[in-house]
Amino acid sequence: MSADAGALLDALVDPADSTSAPGGVIAVRQRGTVIYRRGFGMASIEHAVANTPATRMRIGSSSKQFTCFAALLLAEEGKLDLDAPVDRWVPDLPGFPTVPTARQLMNHTGGYRDHLDGAGLANGGALIPDGWAMKMIARQTGANFAPGNGQTYCNAGYHLLSAVIERAAGERFEDFLDRRIFKPLGMLATASAPSDYAITPDLATLHVPTPTGGWRRGLFPTEEIRGEGAMISTVDDMLRWLDELKGPHRLASPEGWRAMTDAPLLPDGTRSIYALGLHRHHHRGIEVIHHAGGVIGGAAQLMHVPVHDLDIVMLSNGGRLPPLPTTWRILETLLPDAIGAPLPPLAAAGDFPALDGQFYGGASGTLVGFGAVGETLGLSVVGSPPFPIMRDHGAALVVGFEESALGPIIIDKAGLSGSTPPETLAFSESGRRETLRRLAIDDAGAKRLLEALDGRYASADLAARATLVPGDPATIAVRGEFGLTTGVLQALSEEFLLVCEEAGGAPSAMIRVERAGGAINGFRVSSPRGRGFLFTRAD
Length: 539
Prior knowledge:
alpha+beta
């Protein structure tokens, strides 16, 4: 690497290197040689310990590739059939209409609702004990979609996959990873650690910024993180793992490794970019293989660029240098001559002055909304806060799966840029195409709906009870087994409502009312990764 390139990378990192803020660790390797390796910011503000290149950190969902690899090892030994329904190993799972296979769990086409979304809807940020997740998955009365009929990022699938691996292997999931992957590859600083509440030596503290400019400790509110995102590691150990990914392969056959990047077809016939715990696609003309990870108070990104034999690893414990965009900038800095055209621009709010409100599609249960995030057009999906990552591709607005773990979402731009609000949207999510219709309601209709919802409800899906109270504002309180979630209700039509965090706050979920004989007898609440959790009247 030239001195100029080194200076450019330092220029990216230097603003985030502070003795009063968390930071992270970056390692860059090209053609077998580590050319950049640096810790920055603090591993612990509380104890005045700085990050070093050897600091251990949580890698979040970057763990998923290791879970998939563990399943492939068992498949090569004949102990696990990736294309068999997983109730062969974990009985009493719900089928809608069938139980997904291990491969479908691995590539997020299994269709199950995300248990982490369900935990948040029912229990807020309360601590979830060990064993709850499997009970949550088993008691569901519905799903996001039938197995193979879509693709939605699902942590529940990977939690279930951990149990499948454990039972097929005949030993604890965490022990299998250590014995079959970490130790053989010399990843001695790596472990799968299910709880943030446990004391883990040499682990950086996770940090969450406060509105006043300070920091709080980041803790994920569960004691049972597993294959969905439990690993802790170092940048050096992650480079050892990327050595195995590139080859020569020591632990699995070349065919097994090829399966890791074999992505499924989506319902419309297009090829997904998400395979088995790894994204594979092109970024500005350069093929990349990667996976990000996020935890409360931290993030990670592992990236391999095959043609240029470039590896980039970034681990963060809550600093203000986000790993995914930073690794893109590092790639573009080191390979300026190979980089193609710039990415399409982010959609500008000013180009779509009349595009607001909420749109619904009955086939998928998708609700999308629009709003300005600064000068950028933000997109809300099923009650999520608006995120400004839609890119204007000329004929369509697009949100890539690699940026949001949703989609790809494609919205036809025809008729959207005028001064008249559109009544419909031509919309595609994860290869499922449909027309969404605008939702609207007047003040009198909203008042009638909220008054009719007044009462108490119960959900077997979430093991929770809800109380809806009309007023100004109307409110909902959901009490689960361990905690409480509250929100403010905003009527969108005679059938749909948004749940917002507080009066005027960001949306957090969507409600669809259910009626019998004209009277409301229940409702379904949805989040981006958990659609249609059922509540029925309890009074």
